[in-house]
Design goal:
Length: about 325
């Protein structure tokens, strides 16, 4: 005689196993469904610049990998704070990305009393993308050929020389402030709203010099319209092998880049962040993307989200000390 209770239990257990077996693939499908719709990538700079080019180049490759459009949305203004705040306050579901840089994650919190986001608490790093090598350049009319020429002129007549920057609080601005601190030279800062007007005034000799990035500066250097005095990299640049580093010219600890990386809102699920990190690195490593970035004057960077977080931490310690020492504020 069959125990009806035992028989019922076996039937229930069998049904449960069958249901689990049926649901397992469905659950797996849902887990793998991301992204299921177009994604928004906020770039806190105007269209047409180096930051915009970097994001669009990487996005074009990531679209192929992810199977969904990555829509670039330019949200410039307030030293990247408008775009950064928009992402920090957005839904943490992996569908809103942000390009951030030195200013976004390092400089702003030291230069401004009020920043509408916390660079550590409000974001999860996905990974670094590329860095823009920086060069000190001068108008040929100055007669400057080396950093020594510049420093000697600045010390001979303090305050006579001025330099243009692409914006107050930009890596280009802070790079020159670092040079001033290392050399004791006094050079007046004239900030502009973007690279284009700053470069035009240096080309026209309204101002004698500036720190420029390779993406903007190489064409003008190659044409002879700007004279490169030194690069702020650890080694000479392949694109400008005859131009010495500042270290070679006796100005120590002056390795500076304008670097950019991708982040998402802090509460984004880990599996989504990990997926984005994998796809970002994959995109940057492709031959086509690498070639396009290098031709534009950028240096692609691969790495993990943990490495980006550590880099932000080390950069913060370095630059906050300099900003405090030089009593720089932008409020």
């Amino acid at each position: 005689m069959i125990d009806s209770t035992s028989h019922t239990r076996r039937r229930v257990l069998g049904a449960a196993v069958a249901t689990a077996a049926t649901l397992a693939p469905i659950t797996s499908v849902f887990a793998q469904a991301y992204p299921a719709r177009p994604m928004r990538w906020i770039v806190p700079y105007p269209a047409g610049g180096g930051s915009d080019f970097l994001a669009r180049t990487v996005a074009a490759q990531m679209e192929k990998q992810l199977g969904q459009p990555l829509v670039i949305e330019n949200r410039p203004g307030a030293a990247t704070m408008i775009g950064a705040e928009a992402v920090a306050r957005s839904t943490a579901d992996g569908y809103t990305l942000l390009t951030g840089d030195n200013g976004t994650f390092v400089f702003n919190t030291a230069l401004y009393k009020k920043v509408p986001y916390d660079p550590v608490k409000d974001f999860t790093p996905i990974g670094l993308m590329a860095r823009f090598p920086l060069i000190v350049v001068a108008n040929p009319a100055t007669g400057f050929k080396t950093m020594r020429d510049l420093v000697d002129a600045a010390k001979k007549d303090p305050g006579k020389l001025s330099y243009a920057s692409v914006g107050a609080g930009s890596p280009h601005h802070l790079a020159m402030e670092l040079i001033k601190e290392r050399t004791g030279a006094f050079i007046v800062h004239i900030p502009y709203r973007g690279a284009a007007p700053a470069v035009q005034d240096v080309l026209g000799n309204q101002l004698p010099l500036m720190v420029i990035d390779t993406a903007v500066g190489l064409p003008h250097i190659r044409s002879g319209k700007l004279v490169p005095l030194g690069v702020l990299s650890r080694q000479r640049l392949a694109a400008l092998p005859a131009v010495p580093t500042l270290e070679e010219q006796g100005i120590r600890d002056t390795e500076v880049y304008a670097w950019q990386g991708m982040v998402v809102p802090a509460a984004t699920p880990r599996d989504i962040s990990a997926r984005l990190a994998t796809e970002l690195n994959r995109a940057i490593a492709t031959a086509d993307v690498t070639r396009k970035l290098q031709e534009f004057g950028l240096e692609p960077i691969a790495g993990t989200s943990e490495q980006m977080a550590a880099y932000i931490k080390s950069e913060t310690a370095r630059w906050h000390a300099l900003i405090k020492q030089r009593n720089l504020t932008l409020d």
